[in-house]
Design a protein that fits this description.
homotetramer; 5 helices; elongated
Chain lengths: 131, 131, 131, 131
């Protein structure tokens, strides 16, 4: 059982009719992706990878913020959650594409590209579930 | 001269045809709003203001992330920047509305509502300038 | 295999003679604790738990920053790492104590107290391993 | 009047006998330094400056967290605040030294080194004021 599931299972307030599994998966994917993108930086510290560094930093910050926002789900604002998921999707898509370009050369970047793809999909599933 | 202006003025890379003033204003507004929303929390720590607390925390995190992303402007991704500005707009709008409801009772919330309105407008201006 | 272990195993730079297991455990514990403390907020949103809210927010921010710093381990600064681990230790200790006081009443707080204790211990082990 | 001063002046709870000016100065210095270090990254994106990048990222995260913790001053934990100020001091000192080494070559780094020095001093003054 993941941390997000443990916290949602002991959640005192009414979560409404939200798809709890999609929510827990998305929270976990966001924090995993934030962690992986932060660590990917050290791989990328060479001049030709400057775009990769910037993309990783943007993605880490946006995933971290999205994970935090989703973790504070009580009485959520549908409009704000939808906009945040769109930003997170865009960040993961850009970072996944960028890291994938270096995946053959850097094992680190391959691991990071996979985390970005998983997070992008989890955001899409949650956005669809929230309607 | 603000910090954002000082950093943009000494920026080594080409910023393209971006409206530097709109960019600097938006970076400053984002960090100001993040700081103010973080501090507003202590005001709101009473049971009837739980929605205000959550909205402040969401807004602080999103503004902080938006300020960071805009500060790393080099070779920016138009799609990602637009999506992030939309999320920041939504967060500032929601938090400004919520804090304004308590502005008559809590001087703290009035200051915070104003920071949210300024940040919302700065995001709108930058989004328009970036086309 | 955790994300931190996956990233450290594919790390391109020399990690020196650091205890990789203690480092990976501490990174994982920091991010888990940050996530759990962020989620714990919604539990605590009642007037009598204001100290618990503040302690959770402080702990989430410090654990997140510590996890990020440790994830960028290359050429680390022993003095800075030691000071950051001490701050993280203090935050987890304070938050663990505070959440434990509510653990009988709030299942959420019990889960959070456990995450704080694990992170405190992981920080102590890494601090000892780094000498 | 800065944002930190505006928020402290409208603070509803008792701040005890804390030196409000030292507290407001330190909050402002932390957020300024976080912003400046984040922006400094783009300057440093060349292979020979990898240590500078890492130091800037560490400093930005620690200053941001310290500014947040100090902004939530109510009922503060003396032990945690002291440990956090020590970590922030260490980060600003390291980053100031590193950026200063490039200050002759990069105007950006000179501005950043100055922000780090101001923040280091503000942390020292607040630590002394808090005893």
């Amino acid at each position: 059982m993941t941390h997000a599931t443990a916290m949602l299972d002991t959640y005192p307030a009414d979560l409404g009719n939200v798809d709890k599994q999609a929510l827990a998966d998305c929270i976990d994917a966001c924090f995993d992706c934030a962690q992986t993108c932060t660590a990917c930086l050290s791989e990328s510290m060479v001049a030709e990878l400057t775009k990769c560094i910037r993309t990783n930093l943007d993605c880490a910050d946006i995933c971290d913020t999205t994970g935090r926002l989703l973790s504070r789900h009580t009485g959520y604002d549908a409009n704000l959650t939808a906009a945040t998921l769109q930003a997170c999707l865009a960040a993961c898509h850009a970072c996944g594409d960028e890291c994938e370009r270096h995946a053959g050369m850097h094992e680190h970047c391959r691991v990071c590209a996979e985390a970005c793809r998983r997070c992008e999909q989890a955001c899409q599933r949650l956005a669809a579930a929230l309607g």
